[in-house]
Each structure stands twice: as structure tokens, then as C-alpha cells.
Amino acid sequence: MRGGNLLVRNGLIVTSEAMFKADVKVVDGKIVSIGEGLSNEGVDEVIDAKGMLVLPGVVDEHVHMREPGLEFKDDFTHGTKAAALGGVTTVIEQPNTLPPVEDSNTLLAKAKLLEGKAFVDFALYGVLYDSNVHNFEDMISSGAVGFKVFLGPTTGNIPPPSTGSLYHILSLSAKHNVTIAFHAEDNDLVNYFTNKVRSEGRVDAKAHEDARPPICEELAVIKLATIAKRTGGHAHILHLSSKEAVEVIKEGKVRGVKLTGETCPHYLLLSNEDYVKYGTLMKVNPPIRGLTHQQALWEGIKEGVIETIGSDHAPHTVEEKKKSVWEASSGFIGVQTLLPLTLDAALKGKLQLTLLPKLLSENPAKLFKLWPRKGVINVGSDGDLVIVDPNEEFTITQEWLISKNPVTPFIGWKVRGRIKHTILRGVPIVRDGILQNVSQGSWLKAIF
Fold this sequence. Notes:
Layout: E1 6-14, E2 19-27, E3 30-35, E4 45-48, E5 53-56, E6 58-63, H1 76-85, E7 88-93, H2 104-115, E8 121-127, H3 136-142, E9 146-150, H4 163-176, E10 179-183, H5 187-199, H6 207-211, H7 214-231, E11 234-237, H8 243-254, E12 259-263, H9 265-269, H10 275-278, H11 291-302, E13 306-309, H12 318-321, H13 338-347, H14 355-367, E14 385-395, E15 414-424, E16 427-431, E17 434-435
Parallel strand pairs: 1-4, 1-5, 6-7, 7-8, 8-9, 9-10, 10-11, 11-12, 12-13
Antiparallel strand pairs: 1-2, 2-3, 5-14, 14-15, 15-16, 16-17
């Protein structure tokens, strides 16, 4: 779709390299100039960002918008409206919907279905398992930006592939320079520990953590690191939760293995001490663990071992989340709170502010071949910007959240840094914190 013509004046530009005062001019959706005192000639609107931060629009590489097939949990319209309010201008949608995105036909059908409902730009993963690896090239040719592989039990019951299939998948990854994203928990160990903990009669919320201990993640990542080393494929480990898994990735990087990692705000900001307060509300896979693991994740970010932060936006109904620890669904909404929570952490000194564009925008765009069109404030890139008042605090409320099921442990949290404007290809889709009725999201294909 055609982009807008806009000038953002007097903002403090935040990139992965530096922070500096400048204007940003967008014409026909593309950034054409960055500098001080730019002319407003040829633009339709000027936004004064004095005293505010201007960041690249967030690229959330990890969202489950639940459409098609699971719309009773949520849908793409709600999910992308929430993204816009949260400063997210591009989402990469996971493939475990109904039907799963397992071939070029389901990929193209999903893209067609979603494009008319998108308030932000979006890209699509395909899913891979034993019986559909032969569809790898067709899905890439049809527009998939990467693939998701589930090694452990998850929503949609996608079967984990055999070790031979993993070798084949990562060999194809190397051949085509395609990132493979993994839910890395060993399926056999998860089943073993789950049966063990359940047999003890436990029904406390923390039982879920003990049913999926760190060794489940560690063993899965070791296996992937070994295969990636031999094939040259790129394994991107999603929602890292444990110290042990971070150490495996760190060691793999030293050996030159194409191994990268993502974590999520809930692993950085919650710990197993919070089960008493939140119960099954904070149930997620892999589980939220102790403070030692949380500290290892923060260190992994600062050391560059963890290269992205995604939301793992995973809506479920209120009823599904209120069930017992063994029956309650795993996951909760997160696309709208991804930037507010991480920005608050940065403004409070938990990480450098310049790390945010790298973790939330630039690195995800690079991993899934959307860069330099997305993820960066550069001449020639899309005019995707988020303008934030760093001095204003606000409280995450149920009323602010856009979802059929606004269920998250972060309701009631007070954060610093209010999102004032979200701009997609030069068009304000959030203005002064208010969502605009502008459904202009487009389907993005990888730039190979």
C-alpha cells in the first residue's frame, strides 16, 4: 500500500548505534532524510517530538494471533490493533493455527485472509515436521520468512520432528540462508517429568515449572547446537527461560555455530516467586523460573548472547487460564506490552536504551530477512517509527489492552514511557495514544 508523507521534528532519535537530536522526513512511506532543520515541503503533516524519544517501529518476531481456526481466543484484527498501540509496526505470525501453515497453499490462504484485517505489517512463518519437510522450498518461494519447529508439546499439538528430520531441516537452512525458529524443550523429558510430578498429586501452580525443568530446554538446545554445527544451519531458540540454555548458546557462538536466542519480558520481569500471586495466569511454556535464571537472561542480553526479545503473544480465554494447573492453557497476551515493559526496564537502568532498537527491531528484521526495509531508522527504509514520552508514567489496565481476552499478569503494573505516536510507512496509526481507524497493514515477504 502507498505510504504517507510526514515530518517528525525535534525528537531524540534512538538507534542501535547512538542517540542524537534530528528530524525524520518520510515521503511515500520511505525515509528520505534524517537531520536537523529539515524542510516540511512535500509533507502532509508535521509531528513535534520535542522532549520525546523516536525509535524504529518494533518488529515482534513471535506472535500467535490465533487466526484462522482459533478466533474464540482472539483474532488478527484485535492482535494488530494491540500491536499498533504497543509501538509494534511489524509482526511475524506463528504457524500453529488451524489449519497449520504447512505448505504453500495454506501459507497463501492465510496471507490473503489476514491482509484485509491488518493494522500493522505482517510476515508469516511456515511450520515443519517429519511429513512436510519436502515443502520447505515451496513455502520460501511463496513468501515464508522462516520456519517454526516445535520440539515439545504446545498449542495445536504439532508433532516434534525426528532427529533425522532436524538434520534435513537445518541442512536446508544452510542451503537457502533461512532462519529456523525453535520451541526448544525435549518432548520425552517433558512427558517424563510431567508424569512424575502429576503422580505426586501436586496441583500447585509451581508444579508446572517442575514438570518442565531446565534440563528439558538445555538438552534440546544442545541437540540443535550439535546439528547446526554440522550442517551450517541457523537455529534461533525462542523464549529462552534458563541459565543452562543461555550457556549452551554462548558456547556455541564461541565455536562459530549459527545459534541465536530470544527471550520474553515475562522471563525477565517475573520469577517463580510470583506463582503465589498470579497462579496459572502466568503459566507459559517453557515455564517462568527462579531469580538465578532471570539474572542469567539479563546477562545474556548484555553480552549479546540473546539477540532478540519477542512477546510470545499467545491469547487464551479467561476460562482456559482459570483451570487447574494441569488443564490451564499456557501463554497470555503480550504484543501490546512488549515495548512498554522493556522500555520501562531501560529507562530504569536495567539495560542500555540503545539496546532496544537492536533487540526489538533491527535483529528480528535481520534474522527474518526484512532488513533494511524494516527495523531501522535509515534513509531508504520504511517510515516505521514509534514516538515515546520518556517522562510520562502510565498503568497497564484491562481497559487499555485490546484483546477478546485481556488476560496478563502485567495488568496493574506502572511503567515509565508512554507511547504517543505509532507511525507505519509514514502514516500515524496511533496518534496521541489513540488508535486511528487505519487498517493499512501489508503482507511482507523476505528480502533474500
